[in-house]
Design a protein that fits this description.
Blueprint: H1 9-20, H2 34-50, E1 55-58, H3 77-83, E2 89-92, E3 95-98, E4 107-108, E5 111-112, E6 114-117, E7 123-126, E8 135-138, E9 141-143, E10 157-159, E11 162-164
Parallel strand pairs: 1-2, 2-6, 3-7
Antiparallel strand pairs: 4-5, 8-9, 10-11
Family: Belongs to the polysaccharide lyase 9 family.
Domain Pel9A-like right handed beta-helix region: 54-98
Protein name: Pel9A-like right handed beta-helix region domain-containing protein
Length: 175
């Protein structure tokens, strides 16, 4: 009926032993009325649905093919955001995450989805792209290759946290 590891196994076993030693008492006489069984069934379903919040994990050494567990975390916050449901929590481990995160759902009133840093970890989320392979171009002008989608625009450029001027055609001037 119940596996030996189930919390009610020992209780059911004790009741069964008690009933075997008594006249006119059997396990079938101990059945609950149908209404109690129905309410118990509905309650179990409700608890299963409402209490099914899942913890997901993201780490810099993760992989988006992983299940998002603490032992096998996702690589990106975006991947976690794509699977989160109401009540779920996403724990983000230490690191700098350069991505734009757009959750598919926001949860429900009183049961939101939550993004938080892993306890004790420092997390930075930047909606920017790191530009690398800078090379001198002319004088004090540097350039770097960048491959962007057609609808992507540079809105700002920062070097060591300081805003820089972005070269434009026709040099940002209107005549």
């Amino acid at each position: 009926m119940f596996s030996p590891r189930h919390p009610l196994h020992k209780t059911i076993h004790l009741i069964h032993q008690f009933c075997k030693n008594k006249d006119n008492i059997s396990m079938s006489n101990l059945r609950a009325p149908k209404s109690v069984r129905f309410i118990s069934f509905v309650g179990a379903i409700f608890i299963a649905l409402c209490g099914s919040a899942t913890d997901y994990y993201v780490a810099k050494d993760g992989n988006d093919e992983n299940p998002g567990t603490e032992e096998a975390p996702f690589l990106t916050i975006s991947k976690a955001a794509s699977v989160l449901q109401a009540g779920d929590v996403c724990y983000i481990k230490a690191g700098i995450y350069r991505e734009t995160v757009e959750p598919d759902v926001s949860g429900v009133s009183g049961n939101p989805i939550t993004f938080t840093s892993y306890p004790g970890d420092s997390v930075v989320v930047l909606g920017t792209t790191k530009v690398t392979r800078w090379e001198p171009y002319q004088g004090s002008i540097y350039r770097a290759p960048a491959s962007l989608a057609l609808d992507t625009r540079f809105r700002a450029l920062y070097v060591n946290g300081k805003a820089m001027d972005i070269a434009r055609w026709p040099n940002g001037m209107v005549s």
